[in-house]
């Protein structure tokens, strides 16, 4: 099979023909139809996350169909369309797994990071961590749901459940990329007022944000016209943490949704004072995935995508890094 792989840190992906992987016990062999490119892939390729599998096939937003089933794999029929997310395996035994927090499993394996992922014509996945996908999204448009949508939804749920002293009516989104363009639609559908923050001067991103019905779109260096109840930071920029806290009301919450962020500059305690909450969101649970995909079946989401052939994965990563793309980037083998 054709595959794009990372051989050493901070080098472009190489392309080669490899043997198709063989599904182990409880695993599925999938023919990959589409694999979205996540910002996390950039962090992996750029060496910003510790100890990736090497060589590694990246990619954790995989839509594929079942070609072969390993021993005991019987959850999906041959030919079934499934989605493979970031959470690839958990131990089921640690205190986090037992407490329903498998996203924090001490021995978790992650697709396209510590297990091979979907930048290839075929991949294998543990069937217990695969999802059925809503029919109304074709392969290219379903792929970004598997991380941008899913992790975005987890961050959105936490941001909107937690604020103290009133509902999260006004929600800010920092970094208007693949995740934010989906979360903005969920928030608007829930009747919330959305404020979109883009890189200073990025008028194209602002116009894109406005096309989803956000009430306000401006630079991340701008103050909002009214204080926010909650904010989610999708951009990997630590300086946005004090900027977001500054825009959030007492009792409000700031959620950092990315896996990696540049250092957060020091800031005066008064930005956190008054029971403001600052927290991160890590990974996903299978329950998150089921909940979000059921929601995506009910609330039709417009998924904006730019597709690249699999062989152009390096160009896709470069364009994502440069912030040139609107919505989600998807590789098609
Ligand atoms: Zn565990
Ligand atoms: Zn991701």
How does this structure look, described?
Strand 1 and strand 2 form a beta hairpin. This protein is α/β, with parallel strands linked by helices and 333 residues long. It folds into 2 domains: 193 residues, Alpha-Beta Complex (Quinone Oxidoreductase, Chain A, domain 1); 131 residues, NAD(P)-binding Rossmann-like Domain (Rossmann fold), CATH 3.40.50.720. The model has no long low-confidence stretch (mean pLDDT 96). Helices cover 24% and strands 26% of the residues. The protein is globular. The strands form 4 sheets. Strands 3, 4, 5, 8, 9, 16 and 17 form a 7-stranded mixed sheet that branches. The protein has a 6-stranded parallel sheet with strand order 12-11-10-13-14-15, sandwiched between helices. A two-stranded antiparallel ribbon has the order 1-2. Helix 4 crosses helix 5 and helix 4 crosses helix 8. The site of one zinc ion (ZN) has 9 residues, from helix 2. One zinc ion (ZN) binds next to loops.
Task: Flag low-confidence runs.
Answer: none
**Small-molecule components bound:** zinc ion
Q: What does the average pLDDT come to?
A: 96
The CATH class of the largest domain: Alpha Beta
Share in helix: 10-25%
CATH H-level superfamily of the largest domain: Medium-chain alcohol dehydrogenases, catalytic domain
Per DSSP E runs of 2 or more residues, the count of β-strands stands at 17
The name of the CATH architecture of the largest domain is: Alpha-Beta Complex
Largest sheet: 7 strands, mixed
Number of helices: 9
Strand content: 25-35%
SS-derived structural category: alpha/beta
Shape: globular
Terminal-residue CA separation: 10 Å
Number of domains as seen in the coordinates: 2
Order of helices and strands: EEEHEEEHEEEHHEHEHEEHEEHEHE
């Amino acid at each position: 099979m054709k595959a794009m792989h990372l051989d050493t840190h901070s080098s472009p992906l190489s392309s080669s023909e490899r043997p198709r992987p063989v599904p182990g016990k409880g695993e599925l062999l999938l023919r990959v139809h589409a694999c979205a490119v996540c910002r996390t892939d950039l962090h992996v390729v750029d060496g910003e996350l510790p100890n990736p599998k090497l060589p590694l096939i990246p990619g954790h937003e995989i839509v594929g169909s079942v070609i072969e089933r390993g021993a005991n794999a019987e959850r999906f029929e041959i030919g079934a369309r499934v989605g493979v997310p970031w959470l690839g395996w958990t131990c089921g035994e640690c205190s986090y797994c037992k407490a329903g927090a498998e996203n924090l499993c001490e021995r978790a394996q992650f697709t396209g990071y510590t297990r091979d992922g979907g930048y290839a014509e075929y991949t294998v996945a543990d069937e217990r961590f695969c999802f059925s996908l809503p029919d109304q999204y074709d392969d290219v448009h379903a792929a970004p749901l598997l991380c941008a949508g899913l992790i975005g939804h987890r961050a959105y749920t936490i941001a909107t459940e937690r604020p103290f002293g009133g509902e999260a009516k006004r929600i800010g989104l920092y970094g208007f990329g693949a995740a934010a363009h989906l979360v903005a639609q969920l928030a608007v559908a829930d009747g919330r007022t959305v404020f979109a923050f883009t890189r200073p001067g990025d008028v194209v991103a602002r116009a894109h944000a406005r096309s989803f019905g956000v009430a306000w779109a401006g630079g991340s260096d701008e103050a909002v016209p009214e204080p926010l109840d909650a904010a989610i930071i999708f951009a990997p920029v630590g300086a946005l943490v004090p900027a977001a806290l500054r825009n959030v009301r007492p009792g409000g919450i700031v959620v950092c949704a990315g896996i990696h962020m540049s250092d957060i500059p020091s800031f005066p305690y008064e930005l956190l004072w008054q029971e403001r909450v600052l927290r991160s969101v890590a990974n996903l649970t299978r329950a998150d995935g089921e909940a979000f995909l059921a929601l995506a079946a009910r609330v039709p989401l417009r998924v904006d995508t730019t597709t690249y052939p699999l062989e152009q994965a390096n160009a896709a990563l470069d364009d994502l890094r440069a912030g040139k793309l609107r919505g989600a980037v998807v590789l098609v083998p």
